[in-house]
Design goal:
This protein is an alpha/beta fold. The chain contains 13 helices and twelve strands. The protein has two domains: about 150 residues, Rossmann fold, CATH 3.40.50; about 170 residues, Rossmann fold (3-Layer(aba) Sandwich), CATH 3.40.50.2000.
């Protein structure tokens, strides 16, 4: 069977789809799995042990110039690749207009996505030949993704599989050994996908001073559009932290994978760190960690959000609460490190 898995973005969502890819492979060893993903995230799926091939798209660039000759040329290439692939099944785990459009391009006779309300957007349902419900018993998005294994006539397991990024860490360490550091260090993540999710620079700066007093070097890592915030954190830290150098996704993997602890908000690099087995503390301010939190035995969550009694399957947005103090975050970091398995 030839299967096209459509999960285009973003960093954390792709990581939360790794268990689905692995489950598909485990249940159908004969499967040829092609992952369709946005260009910037190719390194997150190319080389995954469950993935046979990768097709990249650039929907953000295409939307900016839909009638440009370059856009037409690039979309023609993708459509040709999909026609040559000729998948028997297209599985859309993203459930957005753009992912559904790519699902339609596959030309697969079976096009399957999530049912509402697990799928947030309504229109993608017009593209699918079948929809499947997400998890009714486990609120985490990984559990809902795993329900899509039924598309290949398999049944999901009773336990949620935490995303495992050790394959990516091994490759990244081999390619970028210069990123590795010898002394113990912590990584702070000042950015997030939405301004409401970010931790205050004063809180992170104070936290940096506290972690430095424990004998840790403190690095403030940053992505596109986050350098100014990283510099602001370092300024508040007053010599207790430094701005990390710019990194690709694989270089960031090396940096996070070697850290003694990683602290950040609800942001993709937090989930990447968790998948690498790095002690990771995620601070959630406006999203429900029960649905979107990091998974793994070396993770912890500190929530400042006002959580409802029940998790909404199609959205993680909740009412914001007070931002935790640096003291509260440091205390949870201490608990996390003390609670870690000894093996």
């Amino acid at each position: 069977m030839r299967l096209a898995l459509i999960r285009l973005s973003a960093l954390g969502d792709i990581i939360h789809t790794w268990p689905l890819a692995q489950s598909l492979r485990d249940n159908r060893p004969d499967l040829h799995l092609t992952w369709v993903v946005e260009e910037p995230f190719r390194s997150l799926v190319d080389g995954h042990p469950a993935v046979d091939s990768v097709i990249t798209v650039a929907t953000k660039r295409w939307r900016k110039a839909p009638f440009a000759p370059q856009t037409r040329a690039e979309t023609d290439v993708v459509m040709t690749q999909l026609r040559e692939l000729a998948p028997d099944l297209a599985l859309d785990s993203q459930g957005t207009f753009k992912s559904a459009w790519i699902t339609r391009w596959t030309g697969a006779g079976k096009r399957i996505g999530l049912a509402r309300p697990w799928r947030r957007e309504l229109l993608p349902g017009l593209v699918y030949t079948q929809v499947l419900p997400g998890s009714r018993t486990q609120p985490h998005v990984v559990a809902t993704n795993l329900m899509l294994v039924r598309a290949v006539e398999a049944q999901p397991g009773h336990e949620i599989s935490a995303p495992d990024g050790h394959w990516l860490l091994k490759r990244s360490n081999e390619r970028y050994p210069q990123v590795r550091r010898n002394s113990p260090y912590a990584v702070l993540l000042p950015g997030a996908g939405h301004p409401s999710k970010v931790l205050g620079t004063d809180v992170l700066g104070d936290l940096a001073r506290r972690l430095a007093s424990r004998g840790l070097e403190v690095l403030v890592a940053w992505g596109p559009g986050e350098l100014e915030r990283a510099e602001a954190v370092v300024a508040v830290a007053d010599g207790a932290a430094e701005v990390a150098p710019p990194t690709s996704l694989e270089e960031l993997t090396v940096l996070l994978g070697g850290a003694s602890v990683v602290v950040g908000a609800d942001t993709g690099p937090v989930h990447l760190a968790a998948s690498l087995g790095t002690p990771t503390l995620a601070v959630f301010l406006t999203t429900d960690w029960r649905r979107n939190g990091p998974l793994g035995s070396r993770t912890a969550v500190l929530s400042g959000a006002a959580l409802p009694k029940h998790v909404r399957p199609g959205s993680a947005a909740v009412n914001p609460g007070p931002m935790p103090s640096a003291e509260a975050i440091e205390e949870r970091v201490s608990q996390l490190i003390e609670e870690l398995p000894t093996s």
